[in-house]
Design brief:
Layout: E1 3-8, H1 16-29, E2 34-39, H2 41-45, H3 52-68, E3 76-80, H4 85-94, H5 100-105, H6 107-115, H7 117-120, H8 129-132, H9 134-144, E4 149-152, H10 157-174, E5 182-185, H11 214-222, H12 243-251, H13 254-266, H14 271-298, H15 300-328
Parallel strand pairs: 1-2, 2-3, 4-5
The structure holds iron/sulfur cluster.
Iron/sulfur cluster binds at residues 226-227, 230, 237, 239, 242, 244-245, 260, 264, 269, 271, 274-275.
Length: 333
C-alpha cells in the first residue's frame, strides 16, 4: 500500500468547506492507502503562537469532527505533529537546503501573509522565522513518513513543489535517500460562504460548521443571500445567484434540487419556504455526523486513545525514516 499523508491545522471546527473540499476525499482514500492524518498543532502555532489554548482545545475537537464524518481509526492513522520530534529535527536539517528568498517567493506563503496583516504587517515586515519556514516543516512532515501521495488543492501546489525541491537537493548532496511525493489533486471545488463569498471560512463569518445545532442552522440559512431581484413571493428569480439553491445542490436529494430550480425560475416558490426546506435537508445531512459526535464527546477517552495509538505508530515510522536520513547525512553517530 502506498503511503498517503495529509494534515489539518487544529484552529477551529470543520465546516462544509472542509467537508466538501477535502474530507469527502479522505473518506474515499481510507482503506485504499496507508493513510496518515496529521493534526498539525506545530504548524497551527506558527500563526497562533500567542494563543496556545485555542490550538490545544482544537486538537481533540478536530479529531472528533474527522471521526464523526466517518473516518475509521482502523484505516486512518491519526497523529499529533508535536509528539513526533523527528519532524522538528528534520525541519532543522532541511532549513539548510532552502533560501530565504525562495520561501519569500512561495505563492502560498505570500497569499497567507497578505491575509494576516494584523500579525505580520502590511508588507510582511513582521513575519516570523517560523511562519516563513512552515513549507520546510511541511516537507519534513511528508518525508518523515515517506509520504508518496499528498492530497492538495490547486492553491497548495506551490507548497508541494517546495517539498519536491528540498527532496531533490537533499538527494543530490547526500545521495538518493528520499522519494519525491506526488500530488493527488482533489476534484472538489472551493465551497462558497453564506454571504456568497467565493470561500467559506471561519474568519469570514460565513461558514456552516458540522457542529452547528438546529438553531444555528436555522439562523444561518435564514440569513443566506438569495437573488436580490426577488421581492415578492411569486417573482421569478435566478437560482444560480442564490446561496440557498447552492446549498440545496450540496445536501438536498436530486429531485428536490430540480424542483427548487424550476419553481424558483417560474416564481412558483417563496424564499422563506425554500429556506425552510433547506434547513430540513441540512439537518438530515448533519444528523448522522451529530450522532457520531455525541458518542465521541461522551467518550473522550476513546478519542485520546485513537490519537495516542496513531501517534505511536507514526513515531515508529518516523524513527525508521530518520535512521536512513541521518545515515545519508553522516550524523548517525
Ligand atoms: Fe433562492 Fe429559493 Fe428564493 Fe429562488 S426561491 S431565490 S432558490 S431562496
Amino acid at each position: 500500500m502506498k503511503t498517503i499523508l495529509t494534515g489539518l491545522r487544529p484552529t477551529g471546527n470543520l465546516h462544509l468547506g472542509h467537508y466538501f473540499g477535502a474530507c469527502q476525499n479522505y473518506l474515499k482514500y481510507q482503506g485504499k492507502y496507508d493513510f496518515y492524518l496529521e493534526v498539525a498543532d506545530v504548524q497551527a502555532l506558527t500563526d497562533n503562537f500567542n494563543n496556545p489554548e485555542k490550538v490545544r482545545k482544537n486538537v481533540r475537537e478536530i479529531t472528533i469532527d474527522l471521526l464523526s464524518i466517518g473516518l475509521d481509526p482502523e484505516k486512518v492513522n491519526f497523529f499529533i505533529q508535536s509528539k513526533i520530534p523527528e519532524i522538528a529535527e528534520l525541519t532543522v536539517y532541511y532549513s539548510n537546503l532552502v533560501t530565504v528568498a525562495r520561501l519569500q517567493r512561495n505563492p502560498t506563503v505570500k497569499t497567507e501573509m497578505s491575509q494576516k496583516k494584523e500579525l505580520f504587517g502590511n508588507n510582511g515586515e513582521s513575519i516570523t522565522y517560523g511562519f516563513l519556514g512552515y513549507p520546510v516543516s511541511q516537507a519534513a512532515d511528508i518525508t518523515c513518513f515517506d509520504g508518496k501521495l499528498i492530497p492538495v488543492g490547486e492553491d497548495q501546489l506551490p507548497l508541494l513543489e517546495q517539498c519536491r525541491e528540498i527532496v531533490r537537493k537533499f538527494n543530490s548532496i547526500y545521495g538518493e535517500t528520499l522519494n519525491e511525493p506526488e500530488p493527488i489533486l482533489s476534484e472538489t471545488k472551493r465551497i462558497k460562504g453564506l454571504d456568497g463569498n467565493d470561500k467559506m471560512g471561519k474568519s469570514l463569518g460565513n461558514a456552516i460548521f458540522l457542529v452547528d445545532d438546529d438553531e444555528k442552522i436555522k439562523e444561518k440559512v435564514m440569513g443566506a443571500i438569495t437573488d436580490p431581484s426577488k421581492i415578492k413571493k411569486d417573482d421569478p428569480a435566478n437560482p444560480d445567484i442564490c446561496m440557498v439553491y447552492y446549498y440545496h445542490k450540496l445536501v438536498s436529494p436530486e429531485e428536490d434540487v430540480k424542483k427548487v430550480c424550476s419553481e424558483c425560475k417560474k416564481g412558483a416558490r417563496g424564499c422563506v419556504a425554500c429556506k425552510k426546506e433547506l434547513i430540513k435537508n441540512m439537518n438530515e445531512f448533519l444528523n448522522p455526523i451529530r450522532d457520531k459526535r455525541k458518542f465521541y464527546e461522551e467518550n473522550t477517552k476513546v478519542v485520546d486513545e485513537i490519537l495516542n495509538k496513531g501517534t505511536e505508530k507514526a513515531r515508529e515510522k518516523a524513527k525508521e525514516q530518520m535512521k536512513k536520513i541521518k545515515h545519508s547525512m553522516m550524523i548517525d553517530y
